[in-house]
Each structure stands twice: as structure tokens, then as C-alpha cells.
Amino acid sequence: MIGKQIIELAEKHFGLMVELRRHLHKNPELSFKEFETSKFIKTNLSEWGISYTDNWVETGIVAEIEGRLESEKTFALRADIDALPIKEIEGRSYGSQNENVMHACGHDVHSTCLLGAIKILNDLKDYWGGTVKCIFQPGEEKLPGGASLMIKEGLIDHLNSSGIVGQHVHPPLAVGKVGFHPGSYMASADELYVTITGKGGHAALPGNVLDPIAIASQLILDLNELEQNLHEEQNPIVLSIGKFNTVGGATNVIPDQVKLEGTFRAMDETKRYAAHKEMLQLSKDLSSKTGGTIEMHIIKGYPVLYNDPSLTEKCIALAEELIGTDNVVRLPKRMTSEDFSFYSQEMPGCFYRLGTGNTEKGIISPVHTPTFDIDEEALKVGAAMMAFLAVENLK
After folding, report:
1. Which CATH number fits the domain 189-302, given the four candidates 3.30.70.360, 3.40.190.10, 1.10.357.10, 3.80.30.20?
2. How far is the C-alpha of 45 from the C-alpha of 218, rounded, in Å?
């Protein structure tokens, strides 16, 4: 019964959600600088009579809605609010008005869907019980992640929640569909920063130099071999060097130093930290062998995103009830990362994908690109799904 009401209200509020999304899309702000975004969200919450606490990591907000039926349970919903340093393509009426900043990862959609869910839940307060706490989180795109910082400020105790749900746009999935994966779903993400120091000199006199480029090249080969040894089909890892810079050097000049930057991703926390030790030992061994100095720093990023199997299977069943079995799919693991993982370390969590693509309309661009966009019909599905999952998990 309440599912039908939620679908009807999502349709009723669709025009409002389009307006909200387009305003947010026009006015993107970078991680931890979402001051106007935060003001806009709070203005709408206040107009709707929704209570909230703010100033979480400066720009974060936690809204709260209580149903009128009797229940002591609390459940949490989460959206992120920051944008990326990407220049959007020209010609969109709702395109970014902030130079070189764009909602290219759909956080405007996530925030809009959560606002839409709040509107729906507020309209239906007589039909459900308990408390829904709604997180508008800053800084998902930038380490150490807004989730970890909000948790450090006491968010988990503030929520006192039995579980949490979040969603993310997914252009490969057609609008109208959602996708789930129970268990380990998204990878941890650590950053590698390596400095290799040798002895530079004239390239024509190799006996007088200790070539850091050769050492760096061997290190990359050794890391690639380590990746192959650790990789398993059911438990994959990624170890990639994305940046290789010399400090000085020329066609006939060997530099003194080389700097490397890369990423390490894993699907298992134990394997993740064991690999850290192996990478550091590998660097130490190569340093001893070559006589060069290798300094490797591993910056720990987001942990593995683990979807609680029990909660996720329940959400899958609820999604099938709300929008039909044909519109709910099982997704494979992803080696991308998300700071929702910090929440799912603290309580049962379910992070799912919202279909936003439409090949007939040419809406196919992936996230993190200047051409990214969504079929706005997805707003109805996203808002309804969050509202329905919240009330059903409060029973």
C-alpha cells in the first residue's frame, strides 16, 4: 500500500525534483567548499518544516523526520553534495555556471533524490513509524573523505541507526532500473607516492651515474609482477602507476631523481594491508640491490565497501516489490571506490546503483566526463526507492 503511495508522490513531486537538480547542477562546488550548496539544501528543508543539524565538517547536514506511528527504530539515508574539477560541455541550459567545476559524478542527482525522499516521507508521516536521518555529506571526492570526517565528529552516535542506505548514478544501467551487489562490492583505494634517487650525470658516461630511471622502471615491473601474483578472479586487486616524472634530465642528461605516483586497490582488507607490507619490502630489496634510494609512501584511502548481505538481500526484495523484478539487476564487483565504505564499517549498509542511462536519447556518457548527463526520469525512481527502503527497514 505505502509503496503505491510513494510512487504516486514521486510522480507528483517530479517537477520540483527537476528544478532542484538543475539548480544544483548549475551551481557545483568542489569538495569541502560546498557552502552555497549547503545553504540551498537547508533553505528547502526549512521551507518544508524539516528539522536538521548542520556544520558537520562545515557544510554537512543531517536532516531528521519522524513518522507518527509508534516505533523506536532509526534508519539512515545518505547523499553526497560535492562536484569535480571538470569543465562541462557548452550548450546546456542547466549547465555549470562555475568555471571548471561540474557535477560529473551525479552528486546533484544523489542530493535531489534524497530531498525528494524527504518530501515523500514527510507527506506520508501518518503511515510509518520511527525516525529517518538523512545525511547530506561533503567531500566524497577528496581524501580523507567527508564520511570519515563526519564520523570523527560523532556522526554514528548522532544517527543511532540500525542501518544505512546510499545510491549512486550508473549510466550503463537504463533509467528505471536499479542494481545491487551483496558483500564486498567496491574496492579500497590507496595512493602510492615514490621517490627514487640515484646519481645523475652525462648520459654518454654511464659508469659515472646511478640511473634512477632504470631503477624506477624495474620497480614498476616488480610491482606489476606483484599485482599478477596477488590477483585472484574472486578477489581482484589493481596496482597501477599513473605518473612517472623525472626531476631534471634531458636527451643526454641522466637526472638525479624520479617520482612515481599510482593507485592500489583491493577487495579484501586483510589482503590490502598485507600487500602494503609486500610493496614496502619490494622497494627496500630493490634499493639494496641497486644502491639507489627508494622512498615509498602509501596514503591510506577509502576502505573496501562492504554491503551487508542480509540488509542488501532485503533491499533487493523491496526494490523488486516497488518497481518490478525485471527492473532490479545483480551487478558485478567494481574496482572503483566510495567513502560510503566508512559508514558500512560502522553499521549494516547497502550501497546500490541507480540507472540513469538512455541510449535512445543519447544519454550514455560515463561519470567523470565533461559530457556526463542523466535521464531525469531517474529522479522519480531514486527518490521513491530511498523513501521505500527507509520506511520498510523501520518495520
Report:
1. 3.30.70.360
2. 56
